[in-house]
Amino acid sequence: MKSTKALVLAPVVLLAACGGGDEQTLHTKTTPGSVIYSYPMDGQVNVSPKTDLIIRLSHPVTETEQDLADKIHWSADGTEVAFTLTLVDGGRSLKLTPENPLATGTEYDVTFDNPLQAEGGRSIGTPNAVGPDGIQFQTRPALSGIAGLADTDDEFGVAWQVPANGSEFEAMNFSTFRLAMTQPVHPRWRDLGGSITLLDDAGQPVPATVLVKGHRISVDPCVTPDPLDCGGKQDILDAGQTYTLRLDNLASLTHPDGPRFSGTFEFTPRDTGPTVVLQQSAVDSGLASGVDADHAIRSILNGQIINGVTLNSVLQGQAGPSQQTGDLFAELAYAPAFEADEALPLRIPKGSVLHSTSLDVLVGGVVPVLEATRPGDPVGDPQVTGDIKVTMLSDASGYMSPNPYTDDLNAPRHVTLFMDVSMNTEEAQPNAALSQDLMGVELRGIALVQDGVLTIDAIGMVEPELLGQEYTDATIAFHLEAATDVDSALDAEFLRELDSTPPHLVSWMPGPADAIPATRQSMQRPGDPVILFFDEPLDPATLDAGITLTENGTPVTDLRLKQDGTAVVLNPASGLRHGVEYQVQVNGITDLAGNVAAVPPPDVPSR
Asked: Can you give the pTM of this predicted structure?
């Protein structure tokens, strides 16, 4: 058994090792240099307008920041982007920070007016991975329900999808199917007669988690009987069988009375086995161990603290950095079955969790928010978030690809990873403000092996909503390390801890009669929803049967449920009525692993 698994592992290590040029000692022979990575990537879409531009080079540049800035041309529709350029990692990376946020729904172009001068007399010309010379990327549409800002096309349809037939990222037997629509999907798409199903070649539905938010749709098959095994090695589709993803009668949020979208997409998944699992650890920069920010380990890509999260907002100011740590167990496909110029697929299982250290809750980044206390009690302590948890709602799908910017075999491979995650905090009040789903988080990075350790450096951006008032933003410089020796890989498959803890209710609105402040229930107005806040995301398939709202002891038949993050929002279609006693009964809802929640029934008087 051990020797068989060693044979499976060896090609994976060799594949990653061929991208070791980012750290190797180069010969003194003068050869052309090249761009080896950028964020955003050439051809990337749905980029946050608050992004920086990162360019990673094969060799350190020898010019000043101002000389480099004068040579780099960044524009959109003929309009120049003013930016500040900073050298990172001894001149191996360039960080270009726009003076103002980029425009939404706009294509940008980056070229070099003249080659950049690098170590050893090398010249680095304009990069290109796909399409015209230069780096072209497109920013996301506005996070708004206004059609002119949120729509990327007048016709409601699919803007792009992954995997996609005939593309670099093709369907595998462990793929999660993701689509981006040209218009945001109506949040009540099911109530309005829409359906999303994955069918096998006999036309039978395949069990799958369906997630829809904004422009994004994710369909994550799970064919194992026990939800605890979703994302494991046995959770695979039949390679060679044709599956159909069917979208029927979907309504647009910006044009609810317009034409509905219906479409089918056929996929024939490719076999990935025998696969190997690597334990990828999000490394502590030092912050979690008490090191101050000035001495923390920083990313070779953009100079930020590795695995550090800082939320930028108007309400909170700059909140952070918070240190993110944890282990992700990545399952890699069998490398010898893929050609050298093909992308090697990988997945990280649904339910995987990363933890971040606590943040102070401040107004404007300065004034502390205090814990509420009863009249006559001492002033409360400054409020903190407690542990911040990020949970994967579906299998994260990714690919390790040959470097698209250069033919140099020593250049690091590129890593692309797509994730749907839920975020929540340990403490109740910040949890109510921040808990939400973040769909379609996209990481772009590089991978190489150093001293037997597969190292991935990647950049991703998230834009959580805060209190329903604004969208914050955070750029995360991920740094993951995985031992590639045989014993570590053999152990990794069995080291992943499966979730056996049931979900717990953290808080609810309007809250119990003795809540602080005491007026919370009296402030509940007719029409206001009831909101349950849990400590982990729930399985959406269990909500309809698992939550009942009674009105004077009689079940409400027109109850509408909405889940976002770890919050579940309840409201009858006609709203809660004045002067009526309501009670919420929870029986049978589960977390993503199938653990059943035990929740005492909250009483909800309506005033």
From this structure: 0.93
